[in-house]
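> example.struct
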């Protein structure tokens, strides 16, 4: 399993893993892939600085990247208008009633309340880029398409390539026209923000559209070595994964239950590939989530329409925190792809990577047998 991207980034395998957990990201890099740390959860740039210092010390000198979220700037950002004032009381009342109906307990008095993930704001995402460039990062990815031209220039001047997610060939071409170096072709099956086109159709479309100008990473529905082999067979130079590592042993976000697993992991371990929905209720943009009693409530008659980004995230942020801190896996709200049906055990990151490599090699040998027969 070796492509041009392995040489370009100094990695053993062309496996790029997005994760909000620095422990998972570091473990991926140490195992031969590239861990890409999601920055959106860091409201304070100083917190991101501390975590990236930890990454520098715990990756054994192996390369890693960061992922920022740079959405279109809302008109009121940077003005004196309080974003919280833009959230209708109807929506606040719905969230409060839903929490009560689901039986989700309030947060402990000594736990800081999450008032909204400011990383969804354009200005905060810019601060994430500034902090990241003070570290030996090897990649900056933007989860919502091409960053602004001045940010692309800033990152390139630092000698760092830029990746951007695309859900169509048209979007991919636009990204490359804007200066993006790597396109992440993210199919409909993926967790988080995702488009309408399935992976098997999307990957070769994007490869054909931009392969002479940019590398392509395949994303969406990848959880086995066979699927990695399929992605490379369709022209991708590597894969971009996320969901499959949410049930890794190193994943440390969320309260641990007596089982040693988080409530989020408990929910995923029993889910099937049919147990996800694609809704705007997480951030304001369509994102695939684990189906739960929380998503059911938003689908019910009388539920309000989700607010635009970033207002929806501000609205539901404390509710997400409460569900993650609770002990009820039936209520959680967590982005995850349809590959969740295969995520049925907790394993170290190194074991997951090793299984991907072994599965890829087995699939390649099988294809050789078919070709030679």
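> example.seq
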């Amino acid at each position: 399993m070796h492509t041009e991207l392995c040489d370009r980034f100094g990695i053993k395998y062309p496996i790029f893993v997005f994760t909000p957990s620095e422990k998972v990201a570091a473990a991926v890099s140490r195992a031969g892939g590239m861990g890409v740390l999601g920055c959106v959860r860091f409201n304070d740039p100083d917190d991101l600085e501390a975590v990236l210092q930890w990454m520098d010390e715990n990756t054994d000198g192996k390369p890693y990247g960061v992922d920022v979220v740079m959405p279109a700037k809302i008109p009121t950002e940077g003005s004196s208008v309080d974003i919280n004032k833009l959230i209708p009381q109807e929506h606040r009342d719905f969230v409060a009633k839903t929490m009560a109906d689901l039986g989700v307990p309030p947060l402990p008095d000594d736990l800081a309340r999450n008032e909204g993930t400011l990383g969804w704001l354009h200005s905060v995402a810019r601060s994430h880029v500034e902090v990241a460039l003070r570290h030996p990062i090897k990649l900056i990815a933007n989860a919502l398409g091409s960053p602004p031209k001045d940010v692309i220039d800033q990152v390139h001047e630092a000698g760092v390539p830029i990746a951007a997610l695309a859900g169509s060939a048209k979007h991919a071409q636009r990204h490359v026209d804007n200066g993006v170096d790597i396109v992440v072709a993210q199919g409909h099956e993926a967790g988080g923000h995702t488009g309408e086109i399935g992976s098997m159709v999307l990957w070769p479309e994007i490869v054909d559209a931009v392969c002479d100008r940019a590398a392509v990473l395949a994303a969406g529905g990848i959880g086995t070595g066979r699927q990695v082999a399929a992605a490379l067979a369709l022209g991708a130079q590597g894969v971009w994964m996320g969901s499959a590592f949410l049930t890794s042993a190193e994943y440390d976000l969320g309260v641990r239950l007596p089982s040693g697993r988080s409530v989020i992991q408990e929910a995923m371990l029993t889910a099937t590939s049919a147990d996800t929905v694609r809704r705007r209720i997480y951030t304001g943009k369509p994102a695939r989530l684990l189906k739960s009693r929380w998503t059911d409530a938003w689908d019910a008659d009388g539920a309000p329409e989700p607010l635009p980004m970033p207002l929806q995230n501000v609205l539901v942020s404390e509710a997400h925190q409460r569900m993650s801190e609770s002990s009820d896996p039936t209520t959680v709200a967590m982005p995850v792809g349809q590959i969740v049906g295969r995520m049925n055990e907790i394993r170290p990151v190194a074991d997951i990577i090793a299984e991907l490599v072994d599965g890829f090699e087995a699939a390649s040998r099988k294809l050789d047998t078919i070709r030679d027969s």
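> remarks
The first helix runs from residue 4 to 9.
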